[in-house]
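Hello,

Following up on my earlier ticket. Below are the two sequence lines again, exactly as submitted.
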Amino acid sequence: MNKEEFITQLKKSISILDDSEQQYFVEEYTQHIDMKMSQGMSEEEAVKEMGPVEELSKEILESYHVKINALEDQKAKSIDYKKFFGKIKNQADKIYGKMAADCKKFASGIKKFLTALKDFCPKPLKRNHNENVTEEISGIPENTGASANAGVSSREGTAFAERKQGGFFREIGRMIKGFFRGIKELVKGCLRGMTWLAGRCFYIALWCLLIMWNAFCIGAGIIGIFFTAVFIFLVGLFLVMLTQGYPTAGFTLCALGASVSTGSLVVGCFILTRWKITKDEKPEGGEVNV
Amino acid sequence: MNAQFKKGVLELIVLESVKNKDMYGYELVEEVSKVIDVNEGTIYPLLRRLTNEQYFETYLVESSEGPPRKYYHLTAKGVLYSNALFKEWDAFQAKVNEFFRGVEHE
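Thanks for your patience. The regenerated structure is below:
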């Protein structure tokens, strides 16, 4: 660390102090380091001799009876924000990772299906080609007459043909198996992707539902509050009229009953609001917390 | 040396050093470094505090090399404080030493 960095860091860490106080430390430290350097010490060394900035600033602040914990609390708060955003990021990464894994599975399913398909398609062509070759080989001795070499090649040719004949059905079986395995993987991949997607959608839908439900409850609650107020006003009105000799006893009772019922409706509405979705390990298992 | 020891006695050393002779920061740091090994930076907060508490007063003296130097001078209040602190220290260390000698002889 050079002098300038040291001073900048120091200034930053004691920025809570009055400018004149900051100025004092900046001047003294600068002068001290300069003097050290004029005596032949290197800048780095001179700064190092001063001690770590954190410790110095702590000591400076302590000498002003600044509560250092308060500063650290502030720091901790800002770190909490960091944590919060880190959490969100982690969650996003997790979701993304899961999605990527499912996409990969999906892709590998398709790949397996395609390989199986490829295995299935060009094999007969290859076989035709091989047959031509064996024909040629077995044709050679016929054209050039008997010879030891020809005998060998014709024997080889027939052996190959036999092997080929026996292996053909096995090959077909393998191909069909591969084909079905490919399809199976494809379906599995599709299903897995779809379940995941469905789970996510379900979860989001659940959230939407929850928000709508809460909006409904709060809306009903607010309307309820209004009606309750009106009914309470009516109770008062009818009571006054009753004391004036009007025959409003029935109305008063009605209004009283209505105000009580709307009031309980309001309370019920607010009780019924739900803000949490309890989440199982898998989001598709999400349920409204009742 | 134990950092807590240093911290406690540093103030007294600084006060006593300045009592003999007015000094500027760098000079004082060198003086203190003869006795105890401290981070050089830690002296300045102490100087500032003692100045703010009016035990020190400062004045500038032009220097042939570099900017003017800030000299620290012990005020009358500072002298009283320093003497009181020294008495405290003396009694304290005597007591502690006595205790240690007692433990040794047992």
